[in-house]
Design goal:
With 269 residues, the protein is an all-alpha fold. Helices cover 65% and strands 0% of the residues. The chain has 12 helices and no strands. The longest helix is centred in the middle third of the chain and has 32 residues.
Length: 269
């Protein structure tokens, strides 16, 4: 894929998103939020890719994946008024459907098309199947890392505004209740060194900890270091109930994060 083709894909994306805007800033805020998220994930994936010494062709391929990974969010929100896949539809599958129906990827090599569609279809799954090719797994993991980094930033900024300004956005809270406490299933998953299962998320605090547990699901050193250097876990703790349990859970996650970074630094034995 050359730079001109990537620019053409970006123009198509802008035109597609424009069709979901009404012109009313209040009505359009969640469309704009996902549009801006896409732009930042493109930057994140390129920065991670550059740190991993990807060549220019692979960097452009990665950017195309980021550009379209949340394409389904726009019709999802327009139809259902939520970003909760549980309450509506699988937004990743919808992204693939939109790309196929509009033949957006037709100008690309068939192998590039396949990689983009597979990475997008898998970016929101709880885990990846190791049955795919190494190249497919590499790009799938790259997209998942870039996506998580920006979602972390978006939600932490939202929690801050929620506390300081009283700003509320039910779509960002996935329509979860803001009950006090932390669910036992969430505590068990983190203690076991596992990403929190969505099925165990009952309240907003649980979702904040699900997000924090992404430290178990990041794949590449640049993403792990970014979480540490941006203090994402420390900030998460600020928006959890002040309790020994919250301190212990975040402390455990910070320790595991450092262990993972150290292991990457040491490399294979």
């Amino acid at each position: 894929m050359d730079e001109e083709t990537l620019d053409d894909l970006a123009r198509w994306f802008r035109d597609y998103v424009k069709a979901f805007k009404s012109g009313d800033p209040e009505n359009d805020r969640n469309i704009v939020l996902k549009e801006e998220h896409t732009a930042r994930v493109r930057r994140e994936i390129r920065e991670i890719g550059e740190s991993l010494d990807l060549n220019d062709d692979d960097l452009r391929l990665a950017e195309a994946m980021a550009l379209f990974h949340d394409l389904g969010r726009f019709p999802q929100y327009a139809t259902y008024g939520t970003f909760s896949d549980r309450r509506s539809c699988d937004h990743a599958a919808l992204s693939v459907k939109v790309l196929r129906e509009n033949r957006v990827l037709d100008p690309l090599d068939p192998l590039e098309q396949e990689l983009i569609l597979k990475a997008i279809s898998r970016h929101n799954r709880a885990s990846l199947s190791e049955e795919e090719s190494d190249r497919c797994l590499f790009f799938s993991k790259l997209l998942r890392d870039a996506d998580k980094l920006d979602i972390w930033a978006v939600l932490l900024d939202y929690y801050r505004r929620r506390e300081t300004e009283g700003y509320r956005n039910a779509a960002l809270e996935l329509d979860l209740s803001d009950d006090p406490g932390i669910s036992e299933a969430v505590v068990r998953d983190i203690a076991a060194g596992k990403i929190v299962k969505l099925a165990g998320v009952k309240r907003l605090n649980d979702f904040k900890l699900l997000q924090a547990s992404w430290v178990f699901d990041l794949n590449y050193r640049p993403a792990l270091v970014a979480v540490r250097d941006r203090r994402y876990l420390d900030e998460t703790l600020e928006f959890l109930p002040r309790s020994e349990e919250a301190d212990r859970l975040i402390g455990h996650l910070k320790s595991r994060l450092e262990e993972r970074i150290e292991a990457e630094d040491e490399g294979p034995a």
